[in-house]
Structures are given as structure tokens and as C-alpha cells.
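Handout, page 2. Input:
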Amino acid sequence: MGFLESIGFRKKSATPVDGEPAVAASVVESESIEPLPSEQRLAFLAKQITAMPFVANANFVTLYNTVPEVAWPVNYIASRAAGAKYLLKKFKDDSVVWNNDIINRLLVKPNAFETWYRTLFKHFAYKLVTGNSYIKAAMSDTFAGAKTLYKWCDRYVCLEAPLVHIKYQHFINDIYGVADIMDVVKYYTHDIDNYYRTKPIDPRCIFHDKDDTVGWIPNDPLKAKSRLYAALKAISNLIAVYEARNVIYVKRGALGWLVSDQKDEMGSKALTKDEKKQILEEADKMYGVGEGQYPYGISDVRLSFIRTNLSITELEPFEETLADAIIIAGLYGIPSVLIPRKDQSTYANQAAAEKAVYSSVVIPMVQRFCQEFTRFLGLDKDGLYLDADFSDVDCLQTGKKEEQEVHRSITDRCKIEFESALITLNDWRAQQGYERVEDPLYDKLISEMTPDEIERVKNFINQTPKQDEGEFSAPSVQNEGE
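Output:
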């Protein structure tokens, strides 16, 4: 396998990797060409090379693992999405639930081999690279149809997306009608290799998350297309640039023709066949940067060099690389100012650009995941839902003074609403992000309280920090046991 094939290029006759189809042809292999007269053969080969260059194929996982301009935007988004603080909350008042042992274990270590962060990183990365990601609830099929699935399963694994296949029912005409998942999908499979295949997986045990793309994959209507399809030409240019730079650096100069500079009484003297062979063998054996090789060559005959290609300076590979990287990053909603580069690596608006990525890409994607995974787990059946907190992200932090002003504004508004019998103490606490208090008093409007209860409330409201202290909080709970 050559360098091009190893990084995502493939010839037309090659077998697709990971079961994904090739999307373009390449140079016709020499063994498929019938013997032709030399002039016709050269003309034919020149035409084929010009018309069908090597291009990137649809094996996007290989491209992700070998082309940094593909890996960078995916890692940028996936690491930030997986690094959020995930919380369990109640629908009723949006208060945080801290004492749910089942979900607490899930949010720390969903399986015996990976943490919650690593599982989510793989999930978002596969979704961004291939267009599809699958989280398997490892449980008995007996409980697969449970409405509150999270109570019956404590192991969740992110499957390798290219190895997951969907086995459809014989008739799937109702896919755009009123069909349920079981009416369309017979089962999923996770094929580790050609010798071992997992047993069929019940569709209700698979959380299939698809990227926001359009298109139709033949014979696989439930799978989404990768957004990287739109960047295949840019990726092809990238790999071509890397290949050209590699050749130039390894060969220590531009490529061209070695021609004889010898002369006799008849004029120019061409190299003999033996001289050509000797020069090539000596150059290959002695010239280079490896062990025992020299950075210069010594020839027994007079030679001159005619360059036939462009140098690195003339090719401008770094400009081409940056242009292609901008195209790929743009597919993921990342501004060009955030792309790592040799010069101008710091920008006054970099923090604003990173904040924009969080606001328009990362947070919406995580929120959709939380909504859909909540439904998959059946948390909504118990009035619960998953949420993500990004308050610790530096670029999203407001200034301390502004934060205090916001906190004070909420406190003042909630105090007025409470005294007007519009909200309860627990409503007040929920709006300021505090946990619900299990005390009947905290669920009463002030108009429903007895004089003793009102006096009790006044006592601990008056104990909250004053405005000039710079901190404000919801009502204290230190007297809740009285």
C-alpha cells in the first residue's frame, strides 16, 4: 500500500474500506492497460493521469485519523460538548436533582471501560465525522421496551459507527407514515471483524443520533450522510499538498531530468543505458537523509539538471492548506480566526469567535442530545430531564460586577413576586439555580401561610446578605427544621 492509499486515497479497483463506497475514480492501474506502441501508450497514460487524479474517498474515519485539518474541527467541538457539566433536573421547577444514584453513576462511568466524558467524546466525534453515532444500552431484550429504560440498564457503550449496520424489515414502505421503529428496523448489528459479530441488537436498545445533513444513502434510509462529503475536493487538495511537500523534502529539491553534459567531436553525447542504470543505483543507495546516506551525490559523468516542477515556494502549499482548512472548519461552523496557523495566532476577537461557536454550535448540539437522550432513557416519564451547564467556560463568563447585577436583579424581582403571592419559596430558589427544599412551607404562597409561618419566613429572608455586600441569594434553609 502506498502513501496515498494509506491516508484515504484509493484506486478505482480497490475494495472500499469499512464498507463505505468510493466516491471517485483514480489512475487506471498499469496492469489493466493493454500493450500499445510507445507513443500511443504515453499519450494514453498522460490522458488518464490528467483526467483521473487521486482523490479522497468516503472512508471518513481514516481521513479523521490521518488529516489534521479534518481532525481539528471535530476535536474542537466534541471535546467542548463532552466537557460540559451534565445535570439531572426536574421538569416541574428546573431544580437540580443530586441524589439520583442511577443517573449519578451514568454521568461518571457509564460502562466498565470508559468515563462519561470519553463516551460522549466518541459519540459526538462519530456523529460529526460519519453523520451517525450509536449508543447501546447493554441490557436484556426482555426489558428493552420499558418506558423508563434507565431503571433497567446501567451500562451504556458508544459503538464504532462504521461497524454498525441496520437490518430492515422486509417491507419498509411505511417509513414516512405512521410506522414505529420496530415496524421498520428488524435489528442492529455491530460487526467487530469478519470473524466475530455481536448478536442482533434490539432497536429499542440503540440511541441513534444523526447529524444535521440532507441526502439519501441508498438502501440505508435511516442513516445520515456525513457533512464531509461537501469537502472531499478540499480534502483531496490537502492530501495532494502533503504528498508534494513530502516528495520535495525527502528528495531534497525539485524533481526533474538528469541529462548528459558530455560532448565529443560530434556534439552532445547521450548517456548510455549502463550509465543511466549506474547513476540511478548510486543515487538511490547513497543519496538521502537516512543512515549511511549522504546529502550530496558524486557522478562519474558530467550531468546537468532540468527542473520540471515547481518548488515549495512556488507551489505556496501553506496558503492552499489554510484555504482548505477554512473550508472544512466552515462546515462545522468554526470561524477562520480560530484555526491554528503559523502567524497571526492571536486575535483581539478570538474570544468573541469562540463564544460564537459555543452559542451557535456546541450548546445547541448538546441541548438536542440532552433532549433526545432524555427521551431514550425514559427520564421524561418520571418528570426528569438531562441538562448541560456551561457556566464554567471562560469565554462565556460575564464580568463579576455584571454577574452580581444579574443576581441582584433576579433576587429583587423574586422577592416582589413572592410578597405578591405570585410564586413560592421553591419557585424563588429554582430561578436562582438552587435545589428544591422538601418542606411544605416552601411550596406555599405567602397568602396561604399562617402568621407564625410568615414570621418565620421574614426572619430568614432578613438574614440574606445585604445589597452592599455584593452577594445575593435565595432564602436560607437553616431554619427549615423548625
